Amino acid sequence: MKLLVTGGAGYVGSVCAARLVKAGHEVVVLDDLTTGHDDAVPDGCRFVQADLAEVADELLAEGFDGVLHFAAKSLVAESMRDPKKYWDGNVLTSLRLLEAVRANGVPRLVFSSTAAVYGEAEAIPIQETAPTRPTNTYGATKLAIDHAITSYAVAHGLAAVSLRYFNVAGAWGGYGERHLTETHLIPLVLQVALGQREAIDVYGEDYPTADGTCVRDYIHVADLAEAHLLALEHATPGTHSIYNLGSGSGFSVREVVETCRKVTGHPIPAQVKDRRAGDPPALVAASDRARDELGWKPQYLDLEVIVRDAWEFTRGRSGQ
Length: 320
Prior knowledge:
Number of helices: 10
Largest sheet: 7 strands, parallel
Strand order of the largest sheet: 3-2-1-4-5-6-11
Helix content: 25-40%
Distance between the termini: 39 Å
Radius of gyration: 19 Å
Shape: globular
C-alpha cells in the first residue's frame, strides 16, 4: 500500500514508518519538524517537510491507500496553559486532514489517540467502554478528533481505527524517544543515569498501591507499531473501531526506577515530592479487544527489556 504517515519524524511515528517500510509498503512521511527530527525519518521513506493543514489536500491528491495520523501537540501542562494551540494544532488540523481524506477517496485511516481521553478511571484495567472524561486540554482534543473520525466513517464510508496508547517506551531499529521537552518517566530516569540531571522526582509515596507510588502501564514501541500494521489490515469501511493498547499490567514508579538502576548500573538518586494534582493511583489498560479482534500479540512485556532498549538508544545518542 501507499501510505502517508503524518508526524513520521517523531518517536512513535518514526518507528511505525520504519516497520511499514520493512513490511514492503510505500511510505511518505509528512512532518513540520517542530518537535520531530529529520534524521528520524527512516530510510526508504519519501520525506515532505510541511505544515499538515496546508498541504494535506494537495499531497493526498497523489493517491494513497491509507493515512496513519501521528502529528499532534502532546504536552499536557502546555495544553492547559495554551489551549488554543491545542485546539488549532490538533483538532482543526485533523479536521482538514479528514476532509482531504474524504475529498481524495483515501479508504482507511489509523489515528494515534491516547489514554488521556479517559481521565481518572473508575475501574482498573480500563476498558474501551469506560467513560471518556478527559481532565486536560490535550486529552479533550484527542477525544474531539475521535468523535470527528466516527462522523466521517459513518457519513463517508471511511475505514478508521483509533489506537489509545498508555505509556510508550523502548526503542527499535535505531529509532527512539528524544523529545525536546521530556515529560515521560523512563527517559527522565535515564537522564539521571547519564548525568544530565541530579535525581529523579517521585511525586507521592502514599498512594493505595503496593509500594505507595503511582502505577502505570508500559508498552514497548515495537509492539505499538505492530498494532498499527494490524489496524491497517483490519480497518472496515464505514466503521470506526477503537482499541486500547497496553500491557494489561502495571509497574510502579519505584519499580521503574529500580529497573533503570539494574539496567544502567547507576545508583539513580530519587527524591520524594508532594503528589501532583490529578495523578490517579493507577492507570492500566485492558487490551483484550485488540488481542481478540486484531490478533495483536505484544512480544516485549518485560519492563527490563523495555528499559534496556531505551537505555541503549539513549546512551548511543549521548555518545556514552
